Amino acid sequence: MNATPRQEPADLYDPVLRARAVAAARGDAPFDVLITGGRLLDAVTGLIRHADIGLVGALIASVHAPASRADAVEIIDAAGSTLTPGLIDTHMHVESSMVTPAEYASAALPRGVTTIVWDPHEFGNVHGLDGMRWAIEAARALPLRTILLAPSCVPSAPGLELAGAVFDAAVVAEMLRSSVVGGVAEVMNMRGVIDGDPRMTNIVNAGLASGKLVCGHARGLEGAGLNAFMAAGITSDHELTSGADLAAKLAAGLTIELRGSHDHLLQEFVEVLNGLGHLPPTVTLCTDDVFPDELCQSGGLDDVIRRLVRYGMNPEWALRAATFNAAERLKRSDLGLIAAGRRADIVFFEDLEEFRAQLVISGGRIVARNGSMQVDVRHLDPAPLENSVKLPQLGENDFRIASRGERVRVATIDCPRFTQWGEAETEVRDGFVVPPAGSAMIAVAHRHGKADGAPRIGFLTGWGEWRGAFCTTVSHDSHNLTVFGGNTRDMALAANAVISAGGGMAVAKDGKIEALLPLPLSGLVTAASLKDTALSFANIRKTMEKIVDWKPPYRVFKACFGATLACNAGPHQTDRGIADVVTGKVLESPVLEVL
Q1: Distance (Å) of CA 252 to CA 227, 228, 279
Q2: pTM attached to this predicted model
Q3: How far apart are CA 547 and CA 543, in angstroms?
Q4: What does the pLDDT look like over 105-116, one tens digit per residue?
Q5: Rounded CA gap, 165 and 131, in Å?
Q6: Could you write out the DSSP letters of every residue in 498-535?
């Protein structure tokens, strides 16, 4: 993976540019652009004041008293607007929005997001280095500043699951040599780091040697485990589970990437931060995962800010977290502040309640106005992402567990999200295990062509009664074909619809497909527009309500995508069986004993 010099941030070191900016700041030369009449939010002090801003190229040359200068090639009237630095999303996955990076950029930039930190481990888990190369080229083509991270966990739980590739320290080090790559992405194999596993230790050390970021995923860690995780060199976390967890992680010294994808926790987080009486400089904001209908209707990081303010956070705090604090975390002294010498990333917000962006300037040029892009966005050829589902059509018996005897004792996976081991007794009928009373089935089939694709079956409790089936190739993080259901006929039907589509999601009920969302690029993404993808995904959501009753906050539709996340504590179904990262055990079949 060849290192290609980045234009940023070195573009601002150009002596000619700096000399022009100095002359304009002195008043000996005109500005290229002069922004007048706006209210400037100081991201450091939180104060709002009237000021005019002079730009030279990509550089802010001057922030000065209103109406004190009028010499500029172009004057932009910002009357009525509050001016803030461009928003910085410190941790996200483009693939979660199920559209291409170009389509994502076209949605995010008009909302004031000028920088994203993208962990493309979804593409990495499916396509390996080829997926990363495609992501790097896609990032280079975007007008949205994109800092990529090198996926640290491909797969996230080695030995417990199989992905489409395996990234070791040598592969991660190769990725880190690219100037587009800003660090090591969220280290999800927590046990591997804490226990000193050589593979994970070497990956973290490769990140440290590069001098770039080493980002974390510290869900549930505390005490000695958290200390060991951080002592290894990991410096951030977005996997917060409660207000107490936030307070503990802040006290421990982690950079917090406060994420918007778990809305039920945000109010509690706001209360903890308000209780401190100040915003710690280590608090940043991120989206992590934004589904297409959410992105289309509500936005990305701007929506996180909007909700935090609605839950009681001072808007100046929310904006500081999303700008100055984020830039400090990224070691990007050119970003995050409207000040002379910084990069001209400026957003004109209508107010500090709805945060509707009227104008977005990135690198000194207008990129969006009133919700519409003002620059072209290049779409990279997606052909390298096609044909990623390597499975034959499946039959009903593929979703049954053969057994001898008349009764069996089986292992169950209890509770969504925070899973626990359970056991149940059930009967054997016609040579197959009958799902225990009150359980639903989950099946995971390896779809990357690296091993056999026979579905491994498990039984879920606490997921309610399923009156049909749901199949998805969006299944964190190895993204194998995953099917949930209450009967084998609908499970096979949904699985075959997704296989035929080259990946995606399908809902089946009473022997017919009720909804289908093809995602033929990596089994994760479509080349369709965000608007069309949002409508199709919303239809999947709505249709799912026909086959299962949700019970927030944990038994929700989103939980289907994380049910296979084997790096988290507790049993999880994978393509190898029921896996537990704490014990390292994998049950190929849930049958424990024939009675």
Answers
A1: 8, 12, 16
A2: 0.95
A3: 7
A4: 999 999 999 999
A5: 10
A6: HHHHTSEEEEEETTEEEEEEE-TBTTTBBSS-HHHHHH
